[in-house]
Specification:
single chain; alpha+beta; three-stranded antiparallel beta sheet; 2 helices; 11% strand
């Protein structure tokens, strides 16, 4: 018997609760460090969204160069809380 559940897949830890967008890629693609030193790992998509909304945040230096560059490039195009305006 095959039982199917229509539950959405779990999201990465960096996905803000009010942000309805799905993750893109691995949930541990990079880690964002806020100005107080707190860290959160996440997919490239949600790391970029978090980075765009936190002054003084940065990508952890051990992230792959490709992931870090993609996160910075995406973040500079986003406003803080991009989901509030449909981005």
């Amino acid at each position: 018997m095959d039982i199917r559940h229509d539950c959405p897949p779990p999201r990465c830890p960096a996905a803000p609760a009010p942000d309805p967008t799905p993750c893109e890629g691995p949930h541990d693609a990079a880690t964002i460090i806020d100005p107080h030193g707190r860290e959160v790992a996440g997919c490239v998509h949600h790391c970029a969204r978090v980075l765009a909304g936190l002054d003084g945040a940065r990508v952890h230096p051990f992230a792959s160069a490709g992931s870090a560059m993609e996160i910075y490039l995406r973040a500079r195009e986003l406003p803080p809380c991009a989901w509030e305006i449909g981005k």
